[in-house]
Amino acid sequence: MISQYSEKSVKFSEHLAQAEIERRGVLPITELDSNITVEEAYQVQLYTIQKKIEAGQRIVGKKIGLTSLAMQELLGVDQPDYGHLLDGMVVENGGQISLDRVLQPRVEAEIAFVLKKDLVGPRVTVMDVMQATDFVLPALEIVDSRIADWKIKLQDTIADNASSGLYVLGGKPLCVDQLDLAQVGMVFYKNGEIMNTGVGAAALGHPATCVAWLANKLFEFGINLKAGEVILSGALSAAVNAEPGDLFHARFAHLGEVSVRFTS
CA-based angle 164:228:218, to the nearest 5? Predict the structure, then answer.
């Protein structure tokens, strides 16, 4: 399977892998190749994931990024992006994250979907997503970047697995017909202080719209969303920088709370 990838995909994947090994940010890929396309950036990501699978890791879901208009405008794009969740990325609710597991972490609050049926593009609708969802949960995503100082363009974050780091699932599982996901309110705290608030509609108008987009986007790469996978549907408010000692928690209407602490 690895043989399908281009020399460029391999080179840039290894560039990002070196950042993980040496625990230091590297130059943006878009500085090394100003002509790299979005499609080529996804090939870098897919090669990296394939190498991690061969090393024994397992795909457990996907994450969707750039779901807010503000972030899309910042990077000059008109659609989200996506990355893979691996089994080593999950952190227990109320648990701790040592700073040696991440490089330059930021924390976001969002709604996670857990699927009970496969979703196969290219014509997946919001209704399809709702029917395929087993339950939803509150989540914290710890986004991270192997690119020094978060100096990223769209192709950089895509190649870097959509700036994925870790994630935390909390609260109580609820079926999607038990609440209006677009109207679910969220309050996000850092060390007991409110950092920001959000609502489900902040993610492309409805979190399930994000999941439908993902299923249809994955079709382009011959990938399906599978039953049992966790889908992080996109941040409901701005990401917040994390430092040693910081405690983050988010409270969601109906869904409950989720928290994590960073240690040195």
Answer: 55
Q: Are 233 and 112 in contact, with CB atoms under 8 Å apart?
A: yes
DSSP character for 25?
-
Helix, strand or coil, per DSSP, at residue 220: coil
Counting the structural domains of the chain, the total is: 1
Would you give the end-to-end CA distance of the chain in angstroms? Answer: 39
Q: 93: Cβ–Cβ under 8 A, 6 or more apart, which residues?
A: 168, 169, 170, 171, 258, 259, 260
Is residue 250 within 8 Å of residue 187, measured between CB atoms?
yes
Which tokens is 255 given? 């869904």
Residue range of the domain that includes 173 = 2-263
Parallel/antiparallel/unpaired status of strands 90-91 and 166-169: parallel
The 8-class DSSP code of residue 116 comes to S
Q: Collapsing DSSP states into helix, strand and coil, what is residue 51?
A: helix
Q: Quick: pLDDT tens for 160-200.
A: 999 999 999 998 999 999 999 999 999 999 999 999 999 99
Which tokens in the block code for residue 98? 């040592």
Look up the CATH number of the domain holding residue 67: 3.90.850.10
- Beta bridge pairs of residue 110: 139, 235
The reply to whether the predicted model has a pTM over 0.85 is yes
- Three-state DSSP state, 63: strand
Q: Which positions ≥6 away from 186 have C-beta within 8 Å?
A: 109, 138, 197, 198, 199, 200, 236, 237, 250, 251, 252, 253
Q: Which residues of 166-176 are buried (b: 16+ CB within 10 A; e: fewer)?
A: bbbbbbeebeb
